[in-house]
Design a protein that fits this description.
Number of strands: 6
Number of helices: 4
Structural class: alpha+beta
Largest sheet: 4 strands, antiparallel
Strand content: 15-25%
Length: 198
């Protein structure tokens, strides 16, 4: 498959390895996702979601180019744009990080921490899920019934007598009458045939 081939070619030749992200000291402690960006491949963006005090200053990115040369750049955090829903994106990444760390260490995941993250940020996890609860409004048995007149969808300027409904009734009355007449005729013939001969 061409997609798999492109993926394998990209994995064989990363554009940056051992990528490190250094936040300014003025930003305080940060909880970033992913914690270790790792390698950067061609055509793939570098995404990192961070939870903490709004940062100010410059963010330093450093890594190693193909051939072993060092690479470093700085980004002005004042140009960062705000967006909604980042807390859920961060929580999903944090849960994935906890699951991966436990899997690599051969240990059980930290279920209480994962459940707490999932419930706080309203995201799914291996230990939680969304449940649909059907609500059926009903009247309490002890309350009295109330009558309310609802407006009809009658066109403006018309009366109920002007409306004509489809004549969809069956022919049951006519067929019943014909059946009764037929029974009476058959009974009359039976009586005539039973009269004694003179």
């Amino acid at each position: 498959d061409s997609r798999l081939n492109r993926l394998f070619r990209a994995m064989e030749a990363p554009v940056l390895t051992d990528l490190q992200v250094q936040w300014p000291a003025s930003s305080g402690p940060q909880a970033s996702v992913p914690a270790n960006p790792g390698d950067l491949f061609q055509g793939q963006p570098l995404l990192q979601t961070v939870r903490g005090v709004p940062a100010a200053g410059e963010l330093t990115l450093a890594g190693t180019l193909p051939g072993g040369r060092s690479w470093q750049t700085r980004l002005d955090l004042g140009q960062a744009a705000s967006a909604s829903g980042l807390n859920r994106h961060w929580a999903r990444g944090r849960i994935d990080g906890l699951m991966d760390s436990a899997r690599l260490a051969g240990q059980s995941p930290d279920e209480p921490a994962i459940v707490e993250l999932s419930l706080r940020h309203q995201v799914m996890s291996p230990f939680t899920s969304f449940v649909a609860v059907e609500e059926q409004p009903s009247k309490p048995a002890e309350s009295a019934l109330a009558r309310t007149d609802l407006p009809t969808l009658q066109p403006a300027g018309t009366t109920s007598g002007m409306l004509r409904y489809p004549q969809t009734a069956t022919m049951a009355p006519v067929l019943t009458a014909l059946g009764v007449v037929g029974l009476m005729f058959a009974l009359a013939l039976l009586l005539l045939n039973r009269r004694p001969a003179l």
